């Protein structure tokens, strides 16, 4: 059986899954490019697999799953039994799940509200109300990091992988002020030193996301 990941490198949710794959050293994953900007996700063959037309999407033989958080935990349950990235202790896992929901319910919606109009609607500036949601997300994250070095406790987990993929992208929209958010700044530095981050996030996509954002924002200066 071959794992197949449908992806676009610039996508933060895709990069979160990349980091899980790298952290677990999962071999022989097949990658299929899906260019959202070219509307590949709206083609009939993709919609047959995923009517929500989102990436990342994973196929494992005949099993099909989408949503980065669902994919990440599926991979950890299948290939990372006993891993500290997703411990079986109920309290530790509940905290991780809470942070994953924070990513899906607060962080990523703040990103999407701001970058979707740029990439898909022809906008070339951010709206103040959208940027305010990013700042609110930063405020929450700073509080979460006030008592522990990682986003869900004393150990790095899948929650860090998901949240750092999104927050690193938010930073390109609204740069994180080191004096205002020292905990986030230190956490981002710790994440950037991890091997799975360097191979799964920075090399595969964060730089591409920043370049695309700069390109699309620059249309307003032409």
Describe the structure.
By secondary structure, this protein is α+β, with helices and mostly antiparallel strands. It has 2 domains: 3-80, Glutaredoxin; 90-218, Glutathione S-transferase Yfyf (Class Pi), Chain A, domain 2. 58% of the residues lie in helices and 8% in strands. The longest helix has 31 residues, at 90-120. The protein is globular. The model has no long low-confidence stretch (mean pLDDT 94). Pfam families: GST_C, GST_N_3. It comes from Bombyx mori. Residues 1-83 form the GST N-terminal domain. Homodimer. Residues 89-213 form the GST C-terminal domain.
How would you describe this structure in keywords?
about 220 residues; alpha+beta; Glutaredoxin; Glutathione S-transferase Yfyf (Class Pi), Chain A, domain 2; 2 domains; four-stranded mixed sheet; about 60% helix; globular
CATH topology of the largest domain: Glutathione S-transferase Yfyf (Class Pi), Chain A, domain 2
Please estimate the helix content.
Answer: 55-70%
Number of domains: 2
N-to-C span: 49 Å
The main β sheet shows up as: 4 strands, mixed
The CATH architecture term of the largest domain is Up-down Bundle
The coarse overall form would be globular
Strand order of the largest sheet: 2-1-3-4
Helix and strand sequence: EHEHEEHHHHHH
Domain GST C-terminal: 89-213
Pfam family, one: GST_N_3
Organism: Bombyx mori (Silk moth)
GO molecular function: glutathione transferase activity
């Amino acid at each position: 059986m071959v794992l197949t990941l449908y992806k676009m490198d610039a996508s933060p949710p895709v990069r979160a899954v990349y980091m899980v794959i790298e952290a677990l050293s999962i071999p022989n994953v097949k990658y299929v490019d899906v260019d959202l900007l070219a509307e590949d996700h709206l083609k009939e063959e993709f919609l047959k697999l995923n009517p929500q037309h989102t990436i990342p999407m994973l196929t494992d033989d005949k099993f099909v799953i989408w949503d980065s958080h669902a994919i990440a935990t599926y991979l950890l349950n299948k290939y990372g039994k006993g891993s500290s990235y997703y411990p079986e202790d109920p309290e530790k896992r509940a905290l991780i799940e809470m942070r994953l929901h924070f990513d899906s319910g607060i962080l990523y919606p703040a990103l999407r509200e701001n970058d979707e109009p740029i990439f898909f609607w022809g906008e070339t500036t951010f709206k103040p109300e959208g940027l305010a949601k990013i700042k609110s997300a930063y405020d929450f994250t700073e509080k979460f990091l006030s008592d522990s070095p990682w986003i869900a406790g004393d150990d790095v987990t899948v929650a860090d992988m998901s949240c750092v993929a999104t927050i690193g992208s938010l930073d390109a929209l609204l740069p994180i002020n080191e004096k205002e958010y020292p905990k986030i700044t230190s956490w981002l530095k710790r994440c950037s030193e991890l091997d799975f981050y360097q191979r799964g996030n920075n090399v595969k996509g964060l730089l591409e996301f920043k370049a695309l954002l700069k390109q699309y924002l620059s249309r307003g200066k032409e």
